[in-house]
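Target chain:
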Amino acid sequence: MSGVQDSLEIKFRLIDGSDIGPKSFPAAASVATLKESILSQWPKEKENAPKTVKDLKIITNHLKKKKRK
């Protein structure tokens, strides 16, 4: 697949259970890029919003589905 860039759909869940996204990112996107995106989309009405990307922690929950035979 020449010329096609792999991408990932990522959804960010905030501590109150609300979400940012899902949003598509290149598979090679850095963690800093993800954090900058979250920060720019953070709902302005939410209390305790992070001020910089260093204030954000990303915790992954990657589940793989097992194929049944």
Q: What stands out?
A: Residues 31-41 form the longest helix (11 residues). Residues 24 and 58 are 16 Å apart (CA to CA).
